[in-house]
């Protein structure tokens, strides 16, 4: 318990300074190495994508409810859809931030690993460590590709949502709703594609975590 408290205190204070190299060094002093941070950050990125999947699905459901609106308070239905769009934007930002953090620790981890390989005097151990490094790097590169591919699918979906919300903001009536119904099928397709790519990224994250913990 005392160890985890120390880690939390160090992490909070150093993250506030924004100095990643000092952060990694201090965390290592309390027994929390870059490999551990890497696993945690990939896990966080995976969880943020799972949450984004749910959020985008929820936003789609609220937009569908708005388009199918058949009486009652139209503005209330619009506000629900708008709130879901804004929450989707927040979820997308969180995914991007989590990916950035994964990339940051990966660079630090691989640089350290490569440097320390040069300090191994026995050739057979050095070759073994080099092989594990290359294997981990390949796995990581595949992970980042799938993460980035899923991330790239979010922007067009958010743009379409924003367009619809702004259009309806100034034209909130049955005629305006009818005018954007044609856009909805395309939005459904885009969100389905986004969720599919996120599933691939989530699966790749699980594989990467298993591989790095097994090394």
From TrEMBL:
Please report the organism this UniProt entry assigns to the protein.
Shewanella eurypsychrophilus
Q: Does the keyword rRNA-binding apply?
A: no
Q: What range does the record give for the signal peptide?
A: 1-22
Lipid metabolism: is it a keyword of this entry?
Answer: no
The protein here is known as DUF2959 domain-containing protein
Q: Which SUPFAM superfamilies match?
A: Coronavirus S2 glycoprotein (SSF111474)
InterPro entries referenced in this protein's UniProt entry, alphabetically? DUF2959, S2_sf_CoV
PROSITE patterns this protein is in? PROKAR_LIPOPROTEIN
Keywords noted in UniProt: Coiled coil, Signal
Coiled-coil regions listed in the entry = 78-153
């Amino acid at each position: 318990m005392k160890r985890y408290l120390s880690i939390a205190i160090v992490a909070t204070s150093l993250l506030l300074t924004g100095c990643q190299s000092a952060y990694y060094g201090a965390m290592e002093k309390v027994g929390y190495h870059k490999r551990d941070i890497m696993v945690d950050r990939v896990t966080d990125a995976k969880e943020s994508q799972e949450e984004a999947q749910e959020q985008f699905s929820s936003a789609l459901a609220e937009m569908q409810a708005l388009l199918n609106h058949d009486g009652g308070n139209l503005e209330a239905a619009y506000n629900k859809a708008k709130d879901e769009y804004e929450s989707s934007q927040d979820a997308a930002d969180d995914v991007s931030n989590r990916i950035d953090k994964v990339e940051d620790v990966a660079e630090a981890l691989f640089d350290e690993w490569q440097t320390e390989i040069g300090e191994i005097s026995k050739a057979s151990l050095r070759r073994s460590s080099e092989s594990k490094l290359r294997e981990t790097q390949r796995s990581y590169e595949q992970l980042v590709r799938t993460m980035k591919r899923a991330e790239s699918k979010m922007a067009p979906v958010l743009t379409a949502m924003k367009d619809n919300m702004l259009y309806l903001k100034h034209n909130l009536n049955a005629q305006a709703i009818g005018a954007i119904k044609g856009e909805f099928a395309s939005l459904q397709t885009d969100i389905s594609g986004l969720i599919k790519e996120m599933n691939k990224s989530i699966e790749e994250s699980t594989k990467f975590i298993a591989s790095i913990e097994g090394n």
